[in-house]
Structures are given as C-alpha cells and as structure tokens.
Amino acid sequence: MFPTLRIMSSKLNKEFISITVDKSHIITIGERLYSESLEFIRELVNNAYDADATIVDITVNDKAIEISDNGVGMDREGISQYFNIGSQLKIDLSQSPVYKRDRIGQFGIGKFASLAACERFDLLTKKGDFVGRVVFDKEEWEKAGDNWHLPLEVLKPNFRKENGTTIVLYDLNREFDLKEIETRIIEGTPLKSPNFKVRLNGHVIKPRSLSGHMIPFLEGTSYGPVSGEIVILPETASSKDNLGIEVKVKGVTVRRELFGMETWGKAMARVRGEVRADFLPITSDRTGFIKDSPEYLEFVRVMEKLTNEVKNVLKRLSGRKANRIVSRALKESLQRVYKALARNPEFSPFGALPIGDEEGIGGAAYKSKGGNGKDEVVKPEDGVHSLAEAKQKKKRKKKPKVRELTPNAVIKKMKFGDTGVSCIVDSFGEEGPETFSEGSIIYINRDHPLYKRESKRFDTHILNISRLLTQEIALMKDHKNPRQAFDRQSKLLKDAFSE
After folding, report:
1. Consecutive sets of 10 residues in the chain, 499 residues long: mean pLDDT of each?
2. What is the domain partition of the chain in residue ranges?
3. Would the pTM of this model clear 0.70, i.e. be above it?
4. Contact yes or no for 280/254 (Cβ under 8 A)
5. How much helix, strand and coil, in percent to the nearest 5, is found in the chain?
6. Superfamily for 22-204?
C-alpha cells in the first residue's frame, strides 16, 4: 500500500503534505528481506552480542524457537528504543558499555525479520529491578488499524533471575534444520570474539577452523585496515562447497567472494579463508556490499593484489608436491639402473663396480673391512654409493658445472665405478628434447608431452625415467655406434625390471 497523502491548508494559503506509512510494511520489511534464509536468527544473536552477552542459548523444537542471552537487558526506555525502527542509537554509541564491542546492528529491523518464520514473538527482558514482556502478534497488529502501540507487561523483579533478554518465536511456518542454523551462526556471528559463546540445543557452536598452508595478511587503506588469513587446503581436502573467501564486517560474514579466482580452474577449490574490513558499507539486509562506494573499490584493489600472491604460493606448493613424486620415481629408477649395471658391468661408461657385497645394490648399506678387522656398515647419504666413495667420503670433489636450472629442478646422483652419473629432472619446454647429456650429467625434460603422459601413473613414471636413463648411459658408452647402444639399452632396461 502506498503512503497516504493528506493535504492541509494554512492561514498563509500554503499547503503541507503529511506522510504516513501503512503498518503492514513493518511486517513485509522482514519477510521480504529474510524469507529465503535463517538470517533472523543471526540478527537476534548479534543483538545479544551488542548487548554484551557472554552466552546465547538457542533452543529449537517443532513448536518454537527460543533465543536467550545474559546481556545487560533492557528497561522501559531500552524496550522503546528496541522497537524504534531505523534508530541511530547503535551508530551513535558504536561500542557496547561492558566489553567495548564494536556493535554489529545498524538498521533496527532484525527483530521484524523473525516474522518471516512465525506468527508471533514474545520478548522478555530484565535490567536491574525492571522486568518486562512484550508480545508482537502479526494478526493482532494488523487488526489494530492506526494504533501503533504494543502491549507491555511489567512483571515482578524476581520473575527472572538475571539480566538479559529472551525472545521466543511461536507458530512457526516452516521446519528448521539444525545444521543449517549452525552454519548461519558460524558465518554470521562473531564466535571468535572473547567472552562470547553460542549454544544450540545445548551444543556449543565452535568457529570453523581450516588446516593447510596459512597466509596471514594485514594491509592498510585510507579507510581502515584489511586483515585476515588465507588457507590453501591440501588437495585431498579441496571441495566445491562454500567456494571463496569470507568477507567479514565486525566479525560477521557478509558474503563469500572469489576475487577473480573463478578463472583458476580446479585450484580455486583449495583456497579458503576470511578477510576482515570493518569499514565496508553494507546493504540493509547485510547480504552484500555497496559496490560503487569508494571504500569497496579500494578494498577490491587490495584483494586483487593479495589473490595474486596467493596464486603464486599455490603454484609453489603444487610444485613441491610434484617434486616429491618425481624424486621418489627418480630414486627408484636409479636403483633399478644400478642393479642392471651391476649385472652388466661391461656396459658401464663409469668403470667397473668395485668388489663389494650384493647389499650395495639398490641403496642399501655397504659392508667393508674397518681398521680393526671388523665389519663396518657405511650408510649412503642419498641415492646409491660405492665402497670407494664410502672410504673417501671426507674428500670432496668439485661439482660438475650444470646449465641454469629452475627452482623446481630435482637432482639425484648415482655413484658407479670411478665416477657415476648425475640426473636432473627439470623444465626445458615442450619443444625441448626429451632427454640429453652433458658430460656425466643426464637431463630429463619434465615439460615433454611424453614425459607428462607417462608421469600420470607411478609405475609408468618409473619405467619412463629408467628408459631415458639407460638410453643416455648406453650412448655414453659408445656414442659412435647407436645400434649397439640401442641393444645395450634394451638389455639394461630388461634387467632393471627383472625380479
């Protein structure tokens, strides 16, 4: 219904327009803003937070929902202020009196939001010796016509033991899922604040915690600080549910934003976290931001810079995992090639294998005679080592010069005979060679399409690396006779995988 216009004349022949608002709008404000969610429970809990409550109990059953707190409560003036729609009190007094909390409520419509879920709500409050009850019944309210008064019942001081407020919603018009309520409380209330706890049917609701690679941040703007934590989840914990970063204003999640991460593909599912920016202007239903405001535009610029940093960290973490897989495959391949060379010492370009125990094959400890005549066990530090190296481990040799490598290069050595070979798995471009050698160094190109295909499974990954290693080792032995090198490679590869 549109506002009623009343035209009145004055003695000065001027006209005045009196504006009134139909009472039904008070109800429809809450219904239209909150009918699709459980935001009204969040609003009532946040009202308790603003009132310095330390405990809020939510009780849900088939007949009613009760939200009770132990805050400062309200007297007559407080109740009148509570039902004052659009009051500036929480803006003028932006901090609570006891715990100096930054007050969340602004618009004064949260209590009417509950009318989207019920036909009547009762308010019982105590402050000092004053105890009062107010009943808001939608049907009675609409029947009362132009009467804007609500019935206030003043009760005896001992009717309620402690200060605080209880609101009960009766005649519910829908069923409520406890998990859904808990989710709304976790996202929509400042559970991490000290001296504040919310219980749902006796169960304490705890703030959400994420495990993974944590990236804390703090950025300044001309409007205030932007702070928070971004978490990169392990791949096993990535999920398509609740994508994005929670944007919080005064401890309350307003909405989740992606900040351009929607173009990252599957990697987007690994990024979670929260960002706090209390200066952001929000819409009246607290579900969005005023996006053309200068505050929000500066906030977006900060977040774009942050997400670029997160993207770089995500790439590094993905590279570490890939390197661990490559390192395992390369180590096992070298052990197999070592075994094959031990069976075919005439194929070795590094010299013959020193006399030793078979336990030296595959990276196990070597046995040698010590100075006292007793057996001594020498453990290789990495890869596969010879007895000669074990005896001369204190003598450091100059490392061979290698071409410039990327930070993701995986390097392992195999000592065989007098020297041995170093193997480097690194990125040399999709158009680069599959493998090549320089001196005693074998390079394997992890960007090569065939390498990428074979590395998808661990067993084929090992086989492919072994193939490339034996190919280069065979060519090192006699690069002038490729046919003979091919035959030697075939024999080495066969023995490398024979049990």
Report:
1. 48 68 66 61 90 96 93 92 70 81 71 76 94 90 78 92 94 87 89 94 90 91 94 84 90 90 89 93 84 94 93 84 89 92 88 51 35 39 45 51 76 84 90 91 92 91 93 87 88 89
2. 22-204, 216-291, 324-496
3. no
4. yes
5. 35, 25, 40
6. Histidine kinase-like ATPase, C-terminal domain (3.30.565.10)
